[in-house]
Amino acid sequence: MISNISTLFKPYIQANQLVVINTPLKSYLPLKDFKKNFNDTPAYVAFRSKQNMDYAFLMNFATNHSDYFLMIEDDVKCVPGFVTQIAATVSAWENKPWVTLEFSQLGFIGKLFHTKDLPCFVHFLLLFYQEMPCYYLLSHFHELMQQTPIQFFPSLFQHMGNYSSFEGKFNSLKDREFEEDDIGSPSNPAASIYTSLKVANASVLMNAYSLDKNFFYTKSAEAGSHLTVVLDTPAKVFRVQVLTGSDLKEENQLKEGHIELGYDSTNRINDCDDYILLGLLVNGVLNKQVLSNESGKKVKCVRLLVTGTPPSGIIVRHISLWVK
């Protein structure tokens, strides 16, 4: 097995992108004389008890390798760009207390931990490894450490398998909060636009937010300049797309810029009092899902911020929003 893995995945192992852990069986706690609970057969209790220890060994190993640990599982479909979406969420929660952020509603999939919290959870798993499945133990762990789950929608992972790792057990669970590729057309709600950019002659600022073929053009921009869409009524935005530059040539793109989402608690007219980073423009484009937790704060502002001085003018073709 070691020889096969080493040959098949050699470049990933050498790049430290793949680490394979082998835990000797003698390291496992006893897998016999189980308590009978959840009406599970002794064989299944043994399976889920060993699985709890598998997770514990994996997390214990991961503790010293990074700042964060994300549990994904092997039979899932991932949303494109899920790492950057999670990174943006972590940045937004940097000054808020949390133990686990959940990016899927199913079982142990899509759960993010601080690695500094892993030893405590590992101890909890090993202490109660015979009692119940890992996702139930995680729920009880939350009750002690975090009170309520912190879940984000839509989910970034979808379970794709039909069978459990336990022999003969059917398992076709699907995450209802996972959105498939067909998201329909944008539905830009009524809004006003404000900017510190110099509007070129005959260019119309509102064209940046229209859904037709018109566009907005500015001859020059400086770092710190902004173009901000302020919604008349705050809304639950679940996707944002920003296109800059000519659609025929790669010209007049905003190479150095990012998009922020704004929230308002002081009823400002043309701005927001709290902004969080959604993502960076890549080759003048951003197309991202917006994750929200159960508190469901509504977005009032979408801000395009220039972070470098472009060598030429900028074309903003579209700022498109999908709202619920």
Q: How many DSSP E strands? A: 16
Biggest sheet layout: 5 strands, mixed
Q: What's the multimeric state?
A: single chain
Report the uncertain regions: none
SS-derived structural category? alpha+beta
The helicity comes to 10-25%
Distance between the termini: 49 Å
Arithmetic mean of pLDDT: 86
Helical stretch count?
A: 6
- What's the shape? elongated
What proportion of the residues form beta strands (DSSP E)?
A: 25-35%
The succession of helices and strands, N to C, reads: HHHEEHEEHHEEEEEEEEEEEE
Strand order of the largest sheet: 1-4-3-5-14
Q: What keywords describe this structure?
A:
single chain, 324 residues, alpha+beta, five-stranded mixed β-sheet, five-stranded antiparallel β-sheet, 6 helices, 27% strand
Give structural notes:
It contains 6 helices and 16 strands. The mean pLDDT is 86. A hairpin with an 8-residue loop joins β3 and β4 (111-114). It is 20% helix and 27% strand. The strands form 4 sheets. It has a 5-stranded mixed β-sheet with strand order 1-4-3-5-14, with no helix packed on it. Strands 7-9-15-11-12 form a 5-stranded antiparallel β-sheet. The protein has a 4-stranded antiparallel β-sheet with strand order 8-16-10-13, with no helix packed on it. It has helices at 2-8, 10-14, 42-62, 82-92, 118-127, 134-145, and strands at residues 68-71, 76-78, 100-102, 111-114, 150-153, 157-159, 191-195, 216-218, 226-235, 237-244, 257-263, 274-280, 285-289, 292-293, 299-306, 314-323. By secondary structure, the protein is α+β, with helices and mostly antiparallel strands.
